[in-house]
Amino acid sequence: MPAAAPTGRSPGDPASPPDDTDRRTVLSGFLFGCGIAASMIDLLVFHLGLQWHHFYDLSTTEVALAADGVLHAVGWFITVWSLFLLADVRRRAEVVWRRWTGAVLAGVGAFQLFDGVIDHKVLGIHQIRYGVDLLPYDAVWIGSALVILVAGVLVLRHARPVPAGG
């Protein structure tokens, strides 16, 4: 295994190289966005508030509610995990909040896009709502997911760190 490139840090220094810190910042924000989209936007608004659908609508109400509970638990696990990553980034270096915010937007958009395309259309495990023409709902769901995802990617690109020496 080749030796690691020298970083100029002492062996006990916990600071990460800048590219590792940036990756951790982006991963933390992306996971936070996914977790919030799953637990707050999708579950609280559409599953519990509006009661338009459950995570898994192809079985009994009891199974649908249990599936909602699993999705809720996983969504919060991802959210908390992202905050531990963020705390680790803050411990190692200053957080570039614009990068983190862009990653949060990208995470929300990616989750909503995955849900709208894969869960709703490919797997068909639930629809946005039932008993209505789905086209306007799908267009708004997938369209808004794309807009949020693109906005996040644009913020990430605009806030990209400048490489050392250039």
TrEMBL record:
Designated name of the protein: Membrane protein
Region annotation Disordered: where it falls in the sequence: 1-21
Transmembrane segments: 30-50, 70-89, 96-114, 134-156
Domain of life: Bacteria
Keyword tags: Membrane, Transmembrane, Transmembrane helix
InterPro entries recorded: DUF2243_membrane
